[in-house]
Amino acid sequence: MxxxxxxIRPSEGTIAIDGKLVAFRSPIEAQRAxxxxxxxxxxxxxxxxxxxxxxxxHASAPMRRQTGVTAQKARSALVxxxxxxxxxxxxxxxxGIAERQLLEIARGxxxxxxxxxxxxxxxxxxxxxxxxxxxxxxxxxxxxxxxxFITHRMGEVYQLCDTVTVLRNGRVIxxxxxxxxxxxxxxxxxxxxxxxxxxxxxxxxxxxxxLTVRGLTVPGVVHDISLEAHAGQxxxxxxxxxxxxxxxxxALAGLAHAATGExxxxxxxxxxGSAPAAAASGVRFVSEDRGEEGIFLDQPASIxxxxxxxxxxASRGFLRPASLRKTAAALAAQVGFDTRRLDTxxxxxxxxxxxxxxxxxxxxxxxxxxILMNEPTRGVDMGARAEIYQMLRRFCxxxxxxxxxxxxxxxxxxxxDRVVTLYRGRIVGTHQHPGxxxxxxxxxxxxxxxxx
Amino acid sequence: xxxxxxxxxxxxxxxxxxxxxxxxALIVRGNLSFDLILFSLLQYFxxxxxxxxxxxxxxxxxxxxxxxxxxxxxxxxxxxxxxxxNALISASCGIGAGLVVGxxxxxxxxxxxxxxxxxxxxxxxxVAGLSYVVTHNETIxxxxxxxxxxxxxxxxxxxxxxxxxxxxxFVIAAVVFVRTRIGANLIATGSDRTAATTSxxxxxxxxxxxxxxxxxLAALSGVLLTFGLxxxxxxGLTDILVPAISAAIIGGVSLSGGRGSPVGIAFGTLTxxxxxxxxxxxxxxxxxxxxxxxxxxxxxxxxxAPRLYRFHHWQALRVRxxxxxxxxxxx
Lengths: 452, 331
Hints:
Oligomer: heterodimer
Low-confidence stretches of chain A: 448-452
Strand order of the largest sheet of chain A: 13-16-17-10-18-19
Number of domains of chain B: 1
Order of helices and strands of chain B: HHHHHHEHHHHHEHHHH
Strand content of chain B: under 5%
CATH topology of the largest domain in chain A: Rossmann fold
Mean pLDDT of chain B: 85
Number of strands of chain A: 19
CATH topology of chain B: ABC transporter involved in vitamin B12 uptake, BtuC
Helix content of chain A: 25-40%
Structural class of chain A: alpha/beta
């Protein structure tokens, strides 16, 4: 995908557009050939207006910043993606993530792209917002524009796509019309093995209650949440984006300054609003934003694995390289990370491998505690997903309690033992496996949308 | 222009407050001539203004040109050394020297991916050293007295050739910044470099150009100042850096890039000049003046603090959510 759009050059092979061979050396050349890429890391400048962003980097834009023609073209692009309520002068900084995603698509329209590449455009969006993106994609399709839609979500393939190509470990596994590809076959092709393997067994017997939360409140986001987590169990906190699910987990990790309420870890009260205090009492947190908060992109994999436990490989404040290497290798073997790649910088690893590093930090701790995770498999391929699920179950067996927030309902139902549903920062319902039903959970997290 | 001026309400507001204070101070003192004060204010503006503009533009691109002080001094020395009958030629030589300094720095930063602070700090020292080399460590004087007199002669009571040229720089920069794609590309480069590159902006070229511009503007200011003073000294003008950065910050340029504009920088510089003129008129000692300046800078920094905005945002959110809850119950 990066090669197609001219960001990286291929070492071998050819690309043909409309039957002509092309070799892009820069994003501009790809753009001239009619390609537009909507990457996961959006390429909008937050300090520029909507109009300027739509025309930013356009290969043949006029020198004048804004003319009647450019404004009109920008406006009609906004209309086709359903953003006609926005003013062209609005700064992109003030827009939400879904609006920015749609704006990226609109930029492709302004550039008259004949081929639009969307890389997991729905990973960070709520259901309502996803349907807006789908609408925009369908409009494009009706106009005769081709779309490459990259996704990890099965459902989207069937809702939106005509042809599906399965990639695994850098190879094309299959290309078929969607109609000729049953769900199960597709999943097995993605996984490279039988479907039943992906989710581990559920826990049957909860252990001691490790985490107790009473009246947790983050002003404006989370209201009066009370819940418990038991050793050996995975608790899911589910809600749409903006429901407060992610924020609840962040508050427990000490990352919400204004949080109030009472929290006990193993019977000991926890001071809220301080990440070091949370870490000291046995709380481990894996962030939803891997690039910014999860791992150190410039550092090698080994340092990333050990970042939260440097004391274990140091003596009198000095790191001991031999011990560092040994511990890192042991941890890597545990989390299924290739030990030969321990010296590679994290930035060159895939999303799945990066997430293994972030999760691997929680392995093998002396003290059992609470592991908090937001979106544990966002941007992670199916194979690594299954490994991460197995890893989480193993942490549970070691006596930890896991609390995770996820917007992927399929994952929640397959993985967790107990689920708490949230709507607008309040708890709607609590369900216990095997009584977790997809339709009930969905109805609860979208409650008022149906009612209004 | 409407949306551009919207972003500059802060700096303009600060300037108005300081300007009113200046007028009040002058009335209190009573015995001073307004024309004279305004003239010297604008002369100071002509010295700091172009430097602050160049430096501020590099800051908008999320870089930093620390070398402006020594570039300014060096350009003055070059202009004197090349001086003959035609002052335009020697001025061009001085400005050309500034362009070359900027080009080298820009290429090092964009081409080799170095930090602009390190590069321009190196540039600051190298160029200061060069000034000593070309002048053989002596103060050199500018022989063309006619030009010196022309530089310092008041035009329309309060302006001079120097200050009019500085104002022209700002006007041209403001129009290019607001009306052409160059401004958009510059903001995008500073706002999110990766995003700008992915969307097809040639960010490397933007950085090289903005450093050349910064070098040229500092050189212009240095050349004009030298012509006005009729001497150039290799000891340079390194103490221009602090006022220039202050002017850019008061003018609404963000240290994290992407925010600011030539109009804002102009008003930031005017604020600084008015402040200094007012304090001078009140007869305060330079030490006290510095403390007052620092106070103003602090006030601006605090007013722009991200935490303060977050707090505001949170308050607004709380009000909005309160309403939401009410409607929920009502349903």
